[in-house]
Amino acid sequence: MKRLAKALVALMILTLAAAPAFAGKLEDIKAKGVFTAGVKDSQQPFGFVDEKTKQIVGFEIDIMQYIADKLGVKLALKPVTSSTRIGMLTQGDVDIVAATMTHKKDREGQVDFSITYFMTGQRLLVKKDGPIKSVKDLAGKKVGSVKGSTSEQNVKKAEPTTTVVSFETYPEAFLALKQGKVEAVTTDEAILVGIKYADDKPEAWDIVGDYISPEPYGLGVVENDSKYRDFINLTLMEMWESGAYKKIYDKWFGKDTKNYIPLTWTMELWP
Amino acid sequence: MHWDIVWNNLDYFLWGAYPNGPLGGLAMSILMALAGIFGAFWLGLVVGVCRLSSRKWLNMPSLVYIEVIRGTPLLMVIFWFFFLAPAVFGFNLPDWQSAIIALIVFTSAYIAEIVRAGVLSLPKGQMEAARGTGLSHTQAMIHVILPQALQNMIPSFVNQFVSLTKDTSLAYIIGVNELTKTATQVNNRTMKAPFEIFITIAVLYFVVCFVLTEFSRRLEARTNRYQARNR
Which SUPFAM superfamilies did the record assign (chain A) (predicted)? Predict the structure, then answer.
C-alpha cells in the first residue's frame, strides 16, 4: 500500500513537470511555424467545406489566413463545434477560435476575446406567412437552436414559455423547421441569412422580429497573454483600416453574394 | 430528389479531401475501425485473462476496469480522452487518435468479458489434463485453453467488431472527419438532400459491416476444419 502511494505521488509530480513551461503564444506559434485556428466546418458562409476543392473555406477562414500571413506562418484549420471550441482552446489544441462565437461576459472566465470582428444580432427564421412574427409569438411553441450557443439562453429569457430544442449545428435546426418539428430557428441574423439562401426556395422563409440580443463576435484566445491578444487586435484594426476587411466581407456578404448583409457597423479602432 | 449532390460528393464521402488534404470519410472510418479492432482484441484478451486469474492484484483491477467502462456510455469515454487526457498527461492527442484510444478502451472491456465467458465455457478437464502433462498454468492457458476458447468466441468477437465499426461514427462529436462528419458537412452546406445523403451513408456502413461479417464467417469455417472436438 505504501509503495502504491509513493508511486502515485511520483506520477503526480511527473505529470506536473510534464506540463509545458509557459511561453508566450506568439513565440510558440512562430516556433511551430503553424497557426492553428479552430473554425466551423458546416456553417455557411463563415466556414464550410467547398464542394469542388473539398477544403474548408469561408469568411472566418479568410480572416485567419490574413493573421497567419501577418505572422509569417502556415495556417492550419481544425473544425470545432459550439460545444467543443472553448475546451479545445483552453487545452491548446487550437491557438485561436474563429467560430461565430459571441463575446459574452460570462465566457470571460474561461477565455479572452479580441475586439469585435463581426457584428450581428439574434433574430428568428420562420416559414413565410406563418403565425410567428416576433419572439412573443413563440409562447408555448418550440424553437430550434444549437447546443452551447448564446441564442439558446437568450430566447428563453425573451420568452420563458417557449421550448428550446437544441441541435448540434444550425442547418440541423433548419431541417427540423422544414419538417415542422420546431416553429422557428433562432440565432444570429448572419447565420440565418446563410441558412435561408442555401435552401432551394429561399423565398419560402422569412427572418423576423427585432434583435433579441446583440451578438458581437470575438476571436477567442487563451487567457492572460496580452501580447498575443494585442497582436490579434492590432491586426484586425489594420485589416479594417487598409480595406482588407471590406474586401473579405464583400467576398462573403457583399451585394453579389447570396448572403447579402449590408455592412452597417464599424470596428472599434483604438486611437 | 437530389441524387446529384450525393454523386458530386461521393469522393468526399469515400476519402475526404485526400490527396489535397487530410484523409477523411469512409477511409478514415475504416482505418479507425481496423486500429480499434486490433487494439481492442489484444487489450481485451489481456484484461480478460487477468480477470480470470486467482491473484487478487490481477483480477481486482481488471474487474473494476470492466465494470466502470461497461457502465459508461461510449460518447462519455470519447469525451474523457479528448478533454481529460491532456489535463492528466500534460500533452494533447490529435482528435482521431484520442477517438481510437477511446474505442479501444471501450470495446476491450466487452472483449474481456467475451474472453472470460469463452474460457469458462470449456470443460474443466481441459485445464486439468493440460496441467497433468506437466504444463504450468500459464503455459496451459496459452497453448491449450485459449486456442480452443478463441475459436468458440469468433461469433461474439465479430458482433463486437461490427458494433465498433459503427461506433466510429461517434467520433464526429470531437471533429474527426469520418464518414458521419463528412455527411453532416455536405448536408449542412447543401441542405437539400438529407434523405439521399444519409441513405448513402447508411449503405456505406452496411457494406463495410457486411464484408467484415462475411470475412469472419469464412475464417470460422476454415478454422473449424482443424477442430474436431465440436463436431
Answer: Periplasmic binding protein-like II
Say which of A51, A80, A92 has its CB closest to residue B175. Answer: A80
Report the share of chain A in percent with pLDDT over 90. 65
Q: Do B87 and A55 touch (CB under 8 A)?
A: no
pLDDT tens-digit readout, A232-268? 999 999 999 999 999 999 999 999 988 888 898 999 9
Whether residue B185 and residue A198 make contact (CB cut-off 8 A), yes or no, is no
One fold for A25-119+216-253 and A120-215: yes
As a CATH number, domain A120-215 is 3.40.190.10
Does the model's pTM come out above 0.95? no
* Three cell numbers written together for B221: 469455417
Contact A42/B185, CB-based, under 8 Å? yes
> How high is the mean pLDDT of chain B?
90
The grid coordinates of residue B159 equal 458482433
> Do the Cβ atoms of A199 and B192 come within 8 Å?
yes
Instruction: Please indicate if any CB of chain A lies within 8 Å of the CB of B88.
Output: yes
Q: What is the pLDDT of residues A32-73, one digit of tens each?
A: 999 999 999 988 899 999 988 999 999 999 999 999 999 999
- Kindly state whether A172 is in contact with chain B, defined as any CB-CB distance less than 8 angstroms: yes
Alpha carbon distance A137, B52 (integer Å)? 63
User: In whole angstroms, how far apart are CA B189 and each of A144, A194, A253, B14, B192?
Assistant: 18, 9, 16, 18, 9
ipTM for the assembly: 0.76
Q: Is the dihedral of CA B19, B23, B26, B27 positive or negative?
A: positive
